[in-house]
User: Fold this.
Amino acid sequence: MPSPRRVETGAYLESGNHRLALRVTIRRRRAVATLAACCSCFGSPLDAQTTATLDVSASFVEYDGFLPSGAAVFSSALRHDGRSVSAGGAAGWTVFESGNQILQATAAAAWLNSPRSDRWRLELAAASGISKYAEEPVSGHVLGRTRLHLLRERTGGWLSIATGSSSGDSAGVPLELSAAAWSLQEDLTLVGTIAAVRLAQYRHMDLQGTARWTRAPVELEIRFGARPWTRPTAEWSGLYGDASLLLSLGRRISVAVGGGSYPSDPIRGLLAARYVNAGIRVRFAGADAGQTSAAAATIAAVRRLAPDDTRRARLEIAPSGNPRTIRVYAPGARTVELMGDFTDWQPVALMRGDVGAWETRLPLAAGVHRVNVRIDGGGWIVPAGARPESSEFGGQVGVVVVR
Amino acid sequence: MTHRHGPFTLAFCLAMLAAPAAVAAQEARLVGRLPDAQRTQVDAILVAARSAGLPTEPLVDRALEGAAKGAPPDLIVSAVLRLRGELDLARGAFGDTASAAELTAGASALRAGATPVDLARLRQLRPGQPLTVPAGVLADLASAGVPMAAGLDAVLAIAEDAADADYVAFRRNVERDIALGASPVAAVGVRLRAVSDALASTGGDRSVPRKRKP
Assistant:
């Protein structure tokens, strides 16, 4: 942990299932702290995609043992999420009131094994990071992590062990053991974790809950937790919590605001702090700007594990009845339309139902049908639950077999 | 005069006789959705399909889809013509008694890479049973990345015993495994063993009544 003469602070980001560390080393007590937490950069884990973002934000932060300070943060991130492999990198530049600067770079990759059964999956991940603060030496870390995931339809959990090395002040071989349980609803994701950490003489245990609620154009994330036990006892313990809000202003621009407190993380060089921040996110690639909070790390890990049909508009057709009930699950949508051969390819507006469902009732004979769905007046897409087939008329059309 | 008017009169009479049939062949839903020239071509395809005993509803649907998506009219005509050919091939494989739904599913499987011979084998293994779902599942597997040979082997392997519900569950499990990171070939292999074991343990007696060979 930080000594009076030498402290570490920083923030981490997770991209998909892997955690990147942004590490900042600060020697002087007068040095103002970083707002690097807002550098975290996440994209909604849709099916394989590449996400590239640029963030510009203003922050006000107060680290334990330091004076409050403002900071300007510029950061960018590039990430690719495939079905089994994710990889990403990030770079950041933080300028403090004092004029001191931090340059940071991180890289990480994760691999998920092919399932051997319905329930279990193995994940291997590695992350590394370096940072340079003012005239201080470059510090860095390398972490490796193994997770065993238990998956059910919309719930799951994992057991995790992480270790590695650090070349900074808190040099040593860290060990982090954690367990988690999660639940994935239409527009709400809940995750609970318990973690035990050891680094040299330092020990602590965390209990944490994270929630993410999404309804376009808003994403809200809330994290709360407790650190009931630390060794040495003089180290920080107590309650913490923060929240962040991402408001999409269009396809590429989002506004991000957040605030709260978070605990220290000796493995990743994170110092306990209270903060508020506001900024702009520009997305250059990818389907979603993603959240900006540290809580998003856990959420992103969960949502990437979920089956594809839990993460995008999903079509369900009642197995019987005439007319049949046709539902499209599209949480956060403002309008949902459907057209297919059973509507003579005329758009039909669906009515809002429960928990993210939109529905209508139409005569639908048994057989093969072609269908497209449109969300919020966008392009015609193939929803999950329908087989995408290349259309002679451009784009794709969904094919469903009705029994 | 009689000599000069004879052929004209005959042609006129034939035209008058044919006119009601031509009017009846016009698909009302295409009026206003396609330019007259291309609508006439589509109508001609429909007439030919109907006379060949093929279902015309999928052809009309395809034309309407193209119109709804703003496709060039000539492209719509060619798409309808292509589908007509696929329906014809599917009918050749499934037999004259195949339903419109079966033919549409067969056409979808053909487009996904199956051959008429493949469809004929499916028909042979499931005599008297509907083929819509197995053919649809075959196309679904191909779309999910399963090589056609592997998907076809799986669909045919359980064709004698599997009910439609078995096929649907099989497809869902394969797609889920793939979504979770399994290779398509591995997923279809694992799931095929599972469904084969289940069918063997129950003697193929599933919730949906199944016809057996005599």
